[in-house]
């Protein structure tokens, strides 16, 4: 029995590091290869030993697919390909291929910077890994090999994020990666066609949340920044190099323009250029509005946002600074934070999630006295705000996507167990499909119906066509033929051809039935009465009375005989062929009603 | 445990015990266990419990029926196991707590058991606990072993695997004392626990269900892999007939695990010497398994240090079979491998060995990979069939590229399977590269170069295939014999080079950045190796390659720009950049490469090209490159000035590397053992030290180094600290004039340094007199700074105290923001 097997090595009932193994039609695919930022030892990577024990990785895995450039989806990739030893193809979209190495490089630099880590992938490894990538376009069907094909769909979330359909024969799985079902200022909404996969693997970060209006969140954000700047304070927004930062930049840029604000906005040097470059290059991946206005004005060429220089942090007066990294765990953002933390006029806005062990996590949990090196204490007097701008589908969005794709079953990943449980029930109730939520290491096995291709003979098709009806996908019709299996192939052919090909002789199969009639006359007379009755009733058919006394209606033969025990009863033997089955049944029921009296 | 943590622990334990309080971050409990592990490994667990009664309180609390988070329950099980690893602490906990945690009455029977994390925690707890004989009695009494048996088939891979490993551990532990001194002790006399496990394994091996057989084989594989005590031999003697019975089944169940087990046994020092019928079983297995399954076994056998020759021959024949098939199908030197084929001419046809495309591709890839692993090993079969292997690999590559014209049906099938198959191309090119380590007949080497050239030229070659073709080409060129006397490439390779160099420009102009980059990497390797050889130089200079490489300095892809910088650096170092003046600009001077590289260093938006420039500059300075030697001080001053402004800390760190080279050249080489030990300069100039320091002052090396010392990126500061320590050591003997006028200058420098340390980048120092530098260096606590820098920059945030604070602070702070992500 064919089956689809799914085993999350990461993202099974958690949001740590996505890595899901799918086995479909004898092919093995790894969906995402993420890293957990909360660990600084080997636990940050998925435990690949569960695949390496199946022999060589490159032989076992047919391909790796990366949904988008966030590190919890691609951070382990150089480790997997250059250190663990996977040497097969890696698929991702063009923007992901371009942006992935920047984020990997940033992370590597921070990891090495902080601790002088030796056992970490190098720049060369990132490059070598990226050279193994095969970039795909949206909606392009890519043949991984003769049997396995993949296709990318737009996922919103971040530039280049994609959902992937994986198909082997008639079996298919859709993996959503992270997605957003509502458009934002620079990206569109996720979309997929009614592809009816056997299984939809969907993220479920906001499985129980119906997110408040984005407008409200944006208004709140702008109000807070504006108030801080108005009172002469400095605003720090720690971000990751590329991703949601660009959404916030557009938001502030528009607001600054509208309000005619003069306070400078800075972005870590190099990153604005980089973002600009990539958004220009992949403009087709942004939303409709940005694409339309691109010719007159590139939304990413900001008028108010300038490159930041380290010395600017000491400048007097208000300012807004976007600085990396996003969790305040090293580099420029942490440096600026230390400078500004002591002033209550200032503000730090955390636009995303922070793992334990970072300054970002500390201040978000309300800690205001931070121990620094040498037992120094940094008192955080600045205002601390958390405003999640991460772009995931909420519960409504997830349900919408399930409705769009119409899968046979759903599997939830990338979320918390409790929230998943709730969504699972909702999906099962509403869509009447099975929903699974395996923990990491647990395997879900789904049996699938075997699909056997059948060839049809040209002769048979031509004969159908000759009846004058053109094929119409919306109006299925019956087609009679003989299914033959030869050389491990199934073919539908006409029965004549089947007999010929198989060297068989035709046999006639006749159905027979006995009808008892109360008639004391002789058999010949009964036969005449039957003939007369049928002749009058079945005017459209050819009814004959043969010299041997039997009656025929088309291929149906009727013979009258005497009853062995009751001389007042005659037995009518009725027989007909398969082709005249309908007429035969009709005729039998007619005779069972008896013969009309008038004829007697 | 430090007092701060002790103070925080009770509050944390009550938070963990409260089911209403969610645990903020799924990594926190893991990190907490890491911390407890460090504590228990360093000291007494009993003392830890006595000093922190809250821990015992937590462990008791989790046993109460309540809606506790599975994560906290799993944590408690693991913690309890960790504490009970010490026998005195085990006795302390054994009375009631441990049986209730790990026995039938514990989570085992409850609803929480459905969570894989709890089952995993239970196993890990027992794994930690099982360290002493008392633990074994406990395991037997509480019926844990039976539960572990059932967990071997758990729905979670992690749990199932941990259960198998735990069984191995218990088996080892129970036999540690019992059988150690009595190698002759038969399994019937083994401790009850061990007997139970062995019986279970026997039962599983007799089972008809493949998963059970797999579990048993995996347990045995780990046992023989990890434990080399004499009792393992007794175990093998008892179980080997059952293992051999598996071979009688068709198909052989759990073949992959069976291969792993047999190899594990064969590698075991205790077992292979006495054999115990092992070699016969191995030979039998080789002949029973399918070619795909037998490949790893054959490779494993050939990797063994000691093994009967007949078995090795059989294994090698199995490994070579697919390639024999390819050679025969393509009617090339039929029977070429006959001499090595231990199957005695039992020819296997393409139809049976490589029946479908998937099977053919899979088997060939595996075979090529296995042979690639085998080739460099000293114990590889001898004689090594270099020529047939080369022939087969070249044939496969030709079949893949559609170059081969098959003359038989079998060849036609192969051709249809392999044409355009990137997987096989990659595997074959990797193996071909490895084969360059050996020699081959001239005619075959010609064919190797021809097929490589074909791949490098073909428009159908994918970027990954091209990269491998470049790598294989370089390896083959490297292995070409040098012409005696002139250390140049042999005429054969030279001929190839003449054909290759016109191909390279096409690849350097490829629309794929991956291809351009691989081309440049190949070029850099080639110049590094043959840049000094006349034949190569002539061919390169006659081609468009140098010009195109220079153009790639402005490639849109930063990786390519970086590779172009490296290649240009090499070209220039080897004097290969000089091209005749172009007809448009007769006699016109080409733009200086130094200026171009400086432009990249100061303006390129990406770090890779800037880092590559720094690498080239450092190399140039080290080698005394002509562009640098003319005015070294000016060069160093300019580079340091630009590097100091760079946002990429790796560029700044490389600036320090360059500064160190300059320093060495000016003052002498540092001692390799201790960079800041007092040693007399090895190649110090004869002039007084102040004189020697003056060039360093002129290039503002000290300002660069002092700024770097307080860099926010730790590796830069570390490197600068090492450099300054070296410098101070060099100037230790200096007792030059310290005029009264210099004192205020020293104070002002020290004040500036303090401001820098506080994060204020402020004003530059300007020109410093050598005396001032020496005085400042002497007054600085560089050793202290070095100690601080040696530690992780986020060690405070990662400390246990910080972890406890974070976990406590999260209580109540979590709301809608709970478990968000990027």
SSE class of chain B: mainly alpha
Number of domains of chain A: 4
Which blocks of ≥5 consecutive residues of chain B have pLDDT under 50? 339-346, 581-589, 671-686, 815-819
Query: Quick one: which chains have the greatest interface?
Result: A-B, 90 and 74 residues
Number of strands of chain B: 2
Fraction of residues in H or I helices of chain A: 25-40%
Please give the oligomerization state of what you see.
heterodimer
Radius of gyration of chain B: 35 Å
Mean pLDDT metric of chain A: 89
Give the proportion of residues in helices of chain B. Answer: 55-70%
The main sheet of chain B comes to:
2 strands, antiparallel
Bin the strand percentage of chain B: under 5%
Could you report the average pLDDT of chain B, rounded to the nearest whole number?
86
Looking at CATH, the homologous superfamily of the largest domain in chain A is Ribonuclease Z/Hydroxyacylglutathione hydrolase-like
Quickly give the CATH architecture of the largest domain in chain A.
4-Layer Sandwich
> What percent of residues of chain A are in strands?
15-25%
């Amino acid at each position: 029995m064919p089956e689809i097997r799914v085993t999350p090595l990461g993202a099974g009932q958690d949001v740590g590091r996505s890595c899901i193994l799918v086995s479909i039609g004898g092919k093995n695919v790894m969906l995402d290869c993420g890293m957990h930022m909360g660990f600084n030892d080997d636990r940050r990577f998925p435990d690949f030993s569960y695949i390496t024990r199946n022999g060589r990785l490159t032989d076992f895995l047919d391909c790796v697919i990366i949904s988008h450039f966030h590190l919890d989806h691609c951070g382990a990739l150089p480790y997997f390909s250059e250190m663990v030893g996977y040497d097969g193809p890696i698929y991702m979209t063009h923007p992901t291929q371009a942006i992935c190495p920047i984020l990997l490089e940033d992370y590597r630099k921070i990891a090495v910077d902080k601790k002088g880590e030796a056992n970490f992938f190098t720049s060369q490894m990132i490059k070598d890994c990226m050279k193994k990538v095969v970039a795909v376009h949206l909606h392009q069907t890519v043949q991984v090999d003769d049997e396995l094909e993949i296709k990318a769909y737009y996922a919103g979330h971040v530039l280049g994020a994609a959902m992937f359909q994986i198909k082997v024969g008639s079996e298919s799985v859709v993996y959503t990666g992270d997605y957003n079902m509502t458009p934002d200022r620079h990206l569109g909404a996720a979309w997929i066609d009614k592809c009816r996969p056997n299984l939809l693997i969907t993220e479920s970060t906001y499985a129980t949340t119906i997110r408040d209006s984005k407008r409200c969140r944006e208004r709140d954000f702008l109000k807070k920044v504006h108030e801080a700047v108005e009172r002469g304070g400095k605003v720090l927004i720690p971000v990751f190099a590329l991703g949601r930062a660009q959404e916030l930049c557009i938001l502030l840029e528009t607001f600054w323009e509208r309000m005619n604000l003069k306070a400078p906005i800075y972005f870590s040097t190099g990153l604005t250029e980089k973002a600009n470059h990539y958004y220009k290059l992949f403009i087709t991946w942004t939303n409709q509005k940005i694409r339309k206005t691109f010719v007159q004005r590139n939304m990413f060429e900001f008028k108010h946002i300038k490159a930041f220089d380290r010395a600017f942090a000491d400048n007097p007066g208000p300012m807004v600074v976007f600085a990396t990294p996003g969790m305040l765990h090293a580099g420029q953002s942490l440096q600026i934070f230390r400078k500004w933390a002591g002033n209550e006029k200032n503000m730090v806005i955390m636009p995303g999630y922070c793992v334990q062990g970072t300054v970002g996590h500390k201040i978000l949990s309300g800690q205001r006295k931070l121990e620094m090196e040498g037992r120094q204490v940094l008192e955080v007097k600045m205002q601390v705000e958390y405003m999640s701008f991460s772009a995931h589908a909420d519960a409504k969005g997830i349900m919408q996507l399930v409705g769009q794709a119409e899968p046979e079953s759903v599997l939830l990943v990338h979320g918390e167990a409790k929230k998943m449980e709730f969504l699972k029930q909702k999906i099962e109730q509403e869509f009447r499909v099975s929903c699974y939520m395996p923990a990491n290491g647990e395997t879900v096995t789904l049996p699938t119906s075997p699909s056997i291709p059948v060839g049809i003979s040209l002769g048979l098709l031509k004969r159908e066509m000759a009846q004058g009806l053109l094929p119409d996908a919306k109006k299925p019709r019956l087609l009679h033929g003989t299914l033959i299996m030869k050389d491990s192939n199934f073919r539908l052919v006409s029965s004549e051809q089947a007999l010929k090909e198989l060297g068989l002789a035709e046999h006639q199969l006749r159905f027979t039935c006995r009808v008892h009639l109360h008639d004391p006359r002789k058999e010949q007379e009964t036969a005449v009465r039957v003939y007369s009755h049928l002749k009058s009733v079945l005017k459209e058919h050819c009814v004959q009375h043969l010299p041997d006394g039997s009656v025929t209606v088309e291929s149906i033969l009727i013979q009258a005989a005497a009853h062995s025990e009751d001389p007042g009863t005659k037995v009518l033997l009725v027989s007909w062929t398969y082709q005249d089955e309908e007429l035969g049944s009709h005729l039998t029921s007619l005779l069972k009603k008896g013969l009309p009296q008038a004829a007697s | 445990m430090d007092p701060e943590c002790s103070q925080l622990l009770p509050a944390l334990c009550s938070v963990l015990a409260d089911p209403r309080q969610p645990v903020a971050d799924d990594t926190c409990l893991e990190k907490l266990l890491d911390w407890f592990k460090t504590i228990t490994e360093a000291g007494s667990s009993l003392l830890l419990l006595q000093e922190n009664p809250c821990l015992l309180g937590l462990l008791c609390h989790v046993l109460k029926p309540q809606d506790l988070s599975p994560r906290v329950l799993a944590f408690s099980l693991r913690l309890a196991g960790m504490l009970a690893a010490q026998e005195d602490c085990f006795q302390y906990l054994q009375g009631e707590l441990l049986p209730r945690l790990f026995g039938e009455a514990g989570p085992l029977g409850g609803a929480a058991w459905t969570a894989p994390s709890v089952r995993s925690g239970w196993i890990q707890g027992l794994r930690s606990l099982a360290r002493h004989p008392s633990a074994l009695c406990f395991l037997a009494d509480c019926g844990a072993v039976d539960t572990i048996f059932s967990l071997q088939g758990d729905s979670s891979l992690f749990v199932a695997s941990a259960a198998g490993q735990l069984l191995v551990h218990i088996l080892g532990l129970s036999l540690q004392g019992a059988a150690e001194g009595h190698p002759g002790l038969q399994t019937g006399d083994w401790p009850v626990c061990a007997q139970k496990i062995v019986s279970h394994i026997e039962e599983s091996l007799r089972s008809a269900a493949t998963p059970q057989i797999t579990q048993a084989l995996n347990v045995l594989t780990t046992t023989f892999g990890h434990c080399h005590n004499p009792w393992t031999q007794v175990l093998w003697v008892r179980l080997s007939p059952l293992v051999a019975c598996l071979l009688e089944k068709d198909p052989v169940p759990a073949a992959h695990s069976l291969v792993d087990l047999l190899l594990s046994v064969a590698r075991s020092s205790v077992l292979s010497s006495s054999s115990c019928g092992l070699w016969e079983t191995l030979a039998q297995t080789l002949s029973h398994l399918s070619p795909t399954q037998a490949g790893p076994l054959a490779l494993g056998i050939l990797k063994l240090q000691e093994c009967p020759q007949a078995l090795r021959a059989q294994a090698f024949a199995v490994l070579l079979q697919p390639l024999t098939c390819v050679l025969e199908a393509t009617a090339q030197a039929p029977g070429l491998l006959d001499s090595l084929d231990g199957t005695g001419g039992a020819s296997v046809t393409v139809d049976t060995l490589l029946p479908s495309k998937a099977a053919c591709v899979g088997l060939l890839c595996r075979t090529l990979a296995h042979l690639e692993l085998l080739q460099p090993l000293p114990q590889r079969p001898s004689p090594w069939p270099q020529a047939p292997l080369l022939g087969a690999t070249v044939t496969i590559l030709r079949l893949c590229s559609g170059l081969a014209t098959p003359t038989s049906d079998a060849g036609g099938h192969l051709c249809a399977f392999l044409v355009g198959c990137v997987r096989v191309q990659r595997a074959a090119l990797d193996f071909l590269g490895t084969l360059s380590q050996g020699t081959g007949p001239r005619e075959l080497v010609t064919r190797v170069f021809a097929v490589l050239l074909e791949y490098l030229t073909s428009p159908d070659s994918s970027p990954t295939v091209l990269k491998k073709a470049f790598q294989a080409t370089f390896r083959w060129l490297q292995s070409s014999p040098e012409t005696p006397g002139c250390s140049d490439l042999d005429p054969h390779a030279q001929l190839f080079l003449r054909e290759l160099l016109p191909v390279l420009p096409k690849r350097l102009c490829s629309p794929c950045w991956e291809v351009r980059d691989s081309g440049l990497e190949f070029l850099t390797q080639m110049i590094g190796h043959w840049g000094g050889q006349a034949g190569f130089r002539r061919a390169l200079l006659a081609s468009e390659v140098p010009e195109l490489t220079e153009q790639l300095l402005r490639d849109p892809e930063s990786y390519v720009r970086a590779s172009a910088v490296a290649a240009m650096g090499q070209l220039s170092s080897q004097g290969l950049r000089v091209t005749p003046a172009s007809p448009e600009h007769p006699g016109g001077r080409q733009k200086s490469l130094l200026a171009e590289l400086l432009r990249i260093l100061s303006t390129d938006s990406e770090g890779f090209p800037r880092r590559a420039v720094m690498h080239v500059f450092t190399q140039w300075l080290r080698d005394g490159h002509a562009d640098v030697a003319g005015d070294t001080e000016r060069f160093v001053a300019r580079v340091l000035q630009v590097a100091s402004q760079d946002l990429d800390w790796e560029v700044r760190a490389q600036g320090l590397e360059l500064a160190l080279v300059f320093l060495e050249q000016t003052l002498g080489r540092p001692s390799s053992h201790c960079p800041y030990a007092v040693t007399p300069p090895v190649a110090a100039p004869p002039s007084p030290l102040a004189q020697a320091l003056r060039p360093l002052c002129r290039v503002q090396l000290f300002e660069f180094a002092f700024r770097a010392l307080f860099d926010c990126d730790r590796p830069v500061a570390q490197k600068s600290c090492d450099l300054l320590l070296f410098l101070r050591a060099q100037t230790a003997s200096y007792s030059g004039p310290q005029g009264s006028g210099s004192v205020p200058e020293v104070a002002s420098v020290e004040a500036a340094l303090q401001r820098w340390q506080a994060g204020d980048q402020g004003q530059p120092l300007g020109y410093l007199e050598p005396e001032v530098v020496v005085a400042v260096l002497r007054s600085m606590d560089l050793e202290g700074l070095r100690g601080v820098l040696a530690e992780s920059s986020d060690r405070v945030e990662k400390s246990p105290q910080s972890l406890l604070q974070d976990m406590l602070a999260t209580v109540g702070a979590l709301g809608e923001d709970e478990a968000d992500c990027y």
